Amino acid sequence: xxxxxxxxxxxxxxxxxxxxxxxxxxxxxxxxxxxxxxxxxxxxxxxxxxxxxxxxxxxxxxxxxxxxxxxxxxxxxxxxxxxxxxxxxxxxxxxxxxxxxxxxxxxxxxxxxxxxxxxxxxxxxxxxxxxxxxxxxxxxxxxxxxxxxxxxxxxxxxxxxxxxxxxxxxxxxxxxxxxxxxxxxxxxxxxxxxxxxxxxxxxxxxxxxxxxxxxxxxxxxxxxxxxxxxxxxxxxxxxxxxxxxxxxxxxxxxxxxxxxxxxxxxxxxxxxxxxxxxxxxxxxxxxxxxxxxxxxxxxxxxxxxxxxxxxxxxxxxxxxxxxxxxxxxxxxxxxxxxxxxxx
Length: 343
Known about the structure:
By secondary structure, this protein is an alpha+beta fold. The chain is globular. It has helices spanning 2-25, 40-44, 46-63, 68-81, 122-133, 221-226, 229-256, 274-280, 286-290; strands at residues 101-107, 137-141, 156-158, 171-174, 178-185, 192-200, 203-211, 260-266, 284-285, 308-312, 317-323, 334-339. It has a 6-stranded mixed beta sheet. A 6-stranded mixed beta sheet has the order 5-6-7-8-10-9. The chain has 2 domains: 2-81; 94-339, Deoxyribonuclease I, Chain A (4-Layer Sandwich). 35% of the residues lie in helices and 21% in strands. The protein is built from 9 helices and 12 strands. Helix 1 crosses helix 3, helix 3 runs antiparallel to helix 4 and helix 7 runs parallel beside helix 8. It comes from Cellulophaga tyrosinoxydans. This is Metal-dependent hydrolase, endonuclease/exonuclease/phosphatase family. Keywords: DNA damage, DNA repair, Endonuclease, Exonuclease, Hydrolase, Magnesium, Membrane, Metal-binding, Nuclease, Transmembrane, Transmembrane helix. One of its GO terms (molecular function) is endonuclease activity.
């Protein structure tokens, strides 16, 4: 009986720990990563914490025990505090043809220039995908400037990069005129951002293309497990701090523009981070508005992670959102269709 009592207490203790972790995770979006970078680890594990709490809830419910209220209360709090990582929604592409603007963001990882994917025609397949989906504006991260002439359907482009070893290359292609452009350099980082002001009908819109600090983690749990934990922790927490600094730079630029904005790019962090909350502010997340499923954008084995976003001005109408299961990079492309005036 003592053994049974011990395991029961241990089980309840684990339940309390998991519930407390999810409750703490609800605070993560409101905590600056420059101050407490380690809390961002909780944001990466929120889907797991929700799932485990749900299992505890079901277990206690079927057992008829009052302990179910612990997980139930925490799950309710998390539901109202955190944005959902799964959307129950049936989508239709019928409205895309009526939209004013179709925008895609895609970290193409140099179009497989370094042969990370064992496939001979990655670039051609990406080009076919883009020609088929036909976005009006594309924001590329980790672009290969040797391929810049291949996108013949786009009259306008902004492809300028800082000539510094290790700096990523960003590219924006547009079917609408680009009337202004600029780089936003992130200090002491290989990452950076850019923006273009485009004329769409009678409106001018600012489109940001972001590539925030990478966590430098190989998306394989077996590889992660082999790495020394202290080194991994130090590297990742440093990256979280840099992301927060970069988010503040983007926030300031957003506040100083008079144009309505669309923010695209690879945030290298989830929607539960303070980095995401800082940049998003009162913008709409296209996935939350019209997406479905997990919205996975990064090819992390066995774990759906959403780190690539399209955020749009609150006055725009999000018509559709599409995630693609195209394994042509370590990221998946994301596209949204919007109307510039809500109907």
